[in-house]
């Protein structure tokens, strides 16, 4: 027999059974984990609901109903003198063009033998959007050679017809709706069967200007996107250098005394000031005092710069503070000046943080609505602003204000347009955040 | 203390490089350094020893005006480098620090390549007129820091990727590259293992032939091994300053004796 090892007996309970304290601690931890998971679950659900509702309502805005029809561009109507002179061509208004479109569509219906009982001429006319005539006119003015030809065009259909194809308008609702008749919908059915009417991708939603209440089918985001882009340029050009310079000065050069403390506190306060207050400030200073034009991206940009500066300063200061002091010591220790230390060593190390803060600030500014309402960017703007820098002083809209604007309108067709605009806005925000992540990766890879 | 190095140098009466007279340092209301007089000889290693918080690092940082970066710090008294008062109004600390290099307690290479780490000083001081000259300075400095052999094939690798001991030698190379006249070392080995420590000590012994080296250390053995002169600080006072051999074998002040025998500290 070998010497079997003799085990001592445990003095304070077995390791295999949990004592009460341990059990309580473990349940507390489990409970905490469940709280956390529940919180994340709720957040994810909210996000899914938000995205589902926005996408569900808005995606249809990117497809629009068009009537595929041959349009006879009658030379007798469009160019009575027959000289193709640009000034003479401009004398023909959209009324002339809408007659042409009506004739062409009536012709098409006859040719195809689409006989709908009781279909009036006004019903046929209202199949086509009021904006279609203007679109055809622009096309002819740009290319006068088309006059006299019969061209096959995709003509923008009326918003109600578009609504019928998207399920917003039904035979029942049409009976109660003075803007659309049951006969028109029957005609639409017939035309769909023959492939004369259908939905296709709606570029003009992204490129065209806003349209009036009566023609939602023509409303686009072009002016709003341009206006927002101009404002972002102004914000970036002003807020980044001013913010970074202020942060560097406060963090590295300024003496620590009562004044700098006061400035610090007030920067934090500014970050918490409601944005509409900045709007009033902008209205008072930039428009009333400095005399800058209303609804202009330059004013919007200036107001948003004021709003973004505290965000950028706070994040930049945090990024600069996070650079280990040993790096500053190292640089100073070999005789670098303060400025060399900051620009050669501190700033490159803080760059990812600064960029992230800046882009978050920009994204915030991009989505800001309230201050823009006060400086008149809520106006209905039909004309595209010119190229910068002059264009910065032209009236323009902004994406979030356009969303606000469209949600105010009565026609249900604007619901999908507003949601579509939100999708565009979200895409811009996602793109900016993606840039932030990429830039951070790029700079951080320098070990 | 059995490894005490004999003071074999015959240039015992070396010229005084830095002379401090009646130096007082205040951190706000806290009187951190009280009336310190020290003469630091050229081409010699001088060690500052003492318990934590005794002011030895503070005093070291006075010698190249690194304390200027601390707002509440106030220095009085007179410190001269080659007879010129370094706290004179006309002195630009940047110029002073090019002459008086510093190596810190924790290795702090820049997050750049090994080459750029060493080349940074010469670049900002305009010491090299051409790329070839700069290459030469970098190689010479790395050789002097006994690091060349280990890194010569990867000069473009990040300096932060080296081991702790290598990083500290890189920092020494960086300090040496600006050809300073004095090298201040603030506990350069406290973050290193014994092997790396031995390498750095060997290096200090070599650097002594060109610079006045001042080293702050916690380890009395280290002070005994590398230095010829030792200053013992206690509670902001310079208690005793003399030949290393004399301080360790025959201290005059009872406080020094208590410290080196391990009774205070």
From TrEMBL, chain A:
Q: Where in the cell is it found?
A: Cell inner membrane; Cell membrane
| Topology in membrane | Multi-pass membrane protein
Q: Where is this region: Disordered?
A: 1-24
What is this organism's lineage?
A: Bacteria, Pseudomonadati, Pseudomonadota, Alphaproteobacteria, Rhodobacterales
Name the principal localization, coarsely classed: membrane
Query: Which Gene3D superfamilies does the record associate with it?
Result: MetI-like
The record's section on CDD domains has: TM_PBP2 (cd06261)
Q: Give the encoding gene's name.
A: pstA
What the entry lists under InterPro entries is as follows: DUF3333, MetI-like, MetI-like_sf, Phosphate_PstA
Q: Where is the composition biased (Polar residues)?
A: 1-19
Enumerate the UniProt keywords alphabetically.
Cell membrane, Membrane, Transmembrane, Transmembrane helix, Transport
Q: Which residues form a coiled coil?
A: none
Cite a single Pfam family from the UniProt record.
Answer: DUF3333
Indicate the secretion signal residues. none
Q: According to the lineage, what is the superkingdom?
A: Bacteria
Family indicated by similarity: Belongs to the binding-protein-dependent transport system permease family. CysTW subfamily.
Known PANTHER family for this protein?
PHOSPHATE TRANSPORT SYSTEM PERMEASE PROTEIN PSTA, PHOSPHATE TRANSPORT SYSTEM PERMEASE PROTEIN PSTA-RELATED
Indicate what this protein is called per its UniProt record. Answer: Phosphate transport system permease protein PstA
Q: Which residues cross the membrane?
A: 34-55, 229-250, 270-292, 298-320, 341-363, 418-439
Domain ABC transmembrane type-1 positions: 225-436
From TrEMBL, chain B:
UniProt keywords (A-Z) are:
ATP-binding, Nucleotide-binding, Phosphate transport, Transport
Cross-referenced PROSITE patterns, in alphabetical order?
ABC_TRANSPORTER_1, ABC_TRANSPORTER_2
Where does the ABC transporter domain lie? 18-260
Gene Ontology MF, one: ATP binding
What SMART domains does the annotation carry?
A: AAA (SM00382)
Q: What name does UniProt use for this protein?
A: Phosphate ABC transporter ATP-binding protein PstB
């Amino acid at each position: 027999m070998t010497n079997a090892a003799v085990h001592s007996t445990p003095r304070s309970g077995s390791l295999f059974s949990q004592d009460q304290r341990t059990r309580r601690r473990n349940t507390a931890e489990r409970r905490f984990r469940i709280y956390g998971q529940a919180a994340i679950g709720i957040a994810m659900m909210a996000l899914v609901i938000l995205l589902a509702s926005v996408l569900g309502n808005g995606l249809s805005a990117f497809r629009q109903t068009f009537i595929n029809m041959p349009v006879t561009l009658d030379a007798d109507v469009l160019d009575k003198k027959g000289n193709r002179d640009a000034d003479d061509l401009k004398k023909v208004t959209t009324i002339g063009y809408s007659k042409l479109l009506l004739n062409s569509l009536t012709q098409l219906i006859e040719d195809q033998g689409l006989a709908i009982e009781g279909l009036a001429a006004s019903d046929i006319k209202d199949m086509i959007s009021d904006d279609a005539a203007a679109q055809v006119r622009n096309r002819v003015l740009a290319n006068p050679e088309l006059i006299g030809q019969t061209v096959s065009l995709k003509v923008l259909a009326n918003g109600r017809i578009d609504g019928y194809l998207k399920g917003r308008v039904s035979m029942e609702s049409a009976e109660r709706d003075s803007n659309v008749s049951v006969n028109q919908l029957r005609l639409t059915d017939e035309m769909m069967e023959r492939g004369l009417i259908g939905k296709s991708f709606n570029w003009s939603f992204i490129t065209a200007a806003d349209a009036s209440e009566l023609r939602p089918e023509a409303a686009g985001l072009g002016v709003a996107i341009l206006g927002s882009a101009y404002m972002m340029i102004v914000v970036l050009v002003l807020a980044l250098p001013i913010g970074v310079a202020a942060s560097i000065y406060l963090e590295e050069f300024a003496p620590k005394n009562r004044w700098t403390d006061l400035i610090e506190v007030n920067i934090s306060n500014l970050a918490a000031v409601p944005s509409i207050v900045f709007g009033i400030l902008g209205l008072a200073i930039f428009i009333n005092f400095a005399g800058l034009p209303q609804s202009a991206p330059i004013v919007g940009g200036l107001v948003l710069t004021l709003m973004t500066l505290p965000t950028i300063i706070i994040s930049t200061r945090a990024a600069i503070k996070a650079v280990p002091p040993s790096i500053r010591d190292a640089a100073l220790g070999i005789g670098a000046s303060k400025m060399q230390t900051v620009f050669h060593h501190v700033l490159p190390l803080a760059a990812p943080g600064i960029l992230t803060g800046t882009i978050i600030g920009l994204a915030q500014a991009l989505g800001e609505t309230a201050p823009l309402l006060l400086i008149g960017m809520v106006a209905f703007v039909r004309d595209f602003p010119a190229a910068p820098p002059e264009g910065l002083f032209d009236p323009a809209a902004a994406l979030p204000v356009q969303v606000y604007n469209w949600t105010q309108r009565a026609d249900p067709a604007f619901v999908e347009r507003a949601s579509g605009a939100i999708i565009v806005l979200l895409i811009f925000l996602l793109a900016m955040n993606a840039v932030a992540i990429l830039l951070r990766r790029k700079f951080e890879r320098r070990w | 203390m059995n490894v005490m190095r004999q003071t074999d140098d015959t240039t015992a009466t070396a010229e005084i490089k830095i002379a401090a007279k009646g130096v007082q340092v205040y951190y706000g209301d806290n009187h951190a350094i009280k009336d310190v007089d020290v003469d630091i000889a050229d081409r010699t290693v001088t060690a500052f020893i003492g318990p934590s918080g005794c002011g030895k690092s503070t005093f070291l940082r006075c010698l190249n005006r690194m304390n200027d970066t601390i707002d509440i710090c106030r220095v009085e008294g007179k410190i001269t480098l080659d007879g010129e008062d370094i706290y004179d109004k006309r002195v630009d600390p940047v110029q002073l620090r090019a002459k008086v290099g510093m190596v810190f307690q924790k290795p702090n290479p820049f997050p750049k390549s090994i080459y750029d780490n060493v080349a940074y000083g010469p670049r900002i001081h305009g010491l090299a007129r051409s790329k070839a000259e700069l290459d030469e300075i970098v190689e010479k400095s790395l050789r002097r820091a006994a690091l060349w052999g280990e890194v010569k094939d990867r000069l473009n690798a990040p300096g932060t990727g080296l081991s702790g001991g290598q990083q500290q030698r890189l920092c020494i190379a960086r300090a040496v590259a600006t050809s300073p006249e004095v090298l201040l070392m603030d506990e350069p080995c406290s973050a290193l293992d014994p092997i790396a420590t031995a390498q750095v000590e060997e290096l200090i012994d070599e650097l002594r032939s060109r610079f006045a080296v001042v080293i702050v250390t916690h380890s009395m053995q280290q002070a005994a091994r590398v230095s010829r002169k030792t200053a013992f600080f206690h509670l902001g006072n310079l208690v005793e300053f003399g030949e290393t051999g004399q301080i360790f074998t025959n201290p005059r002040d009872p406080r020094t004796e208590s410290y080196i025998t391990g009774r205070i500290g």
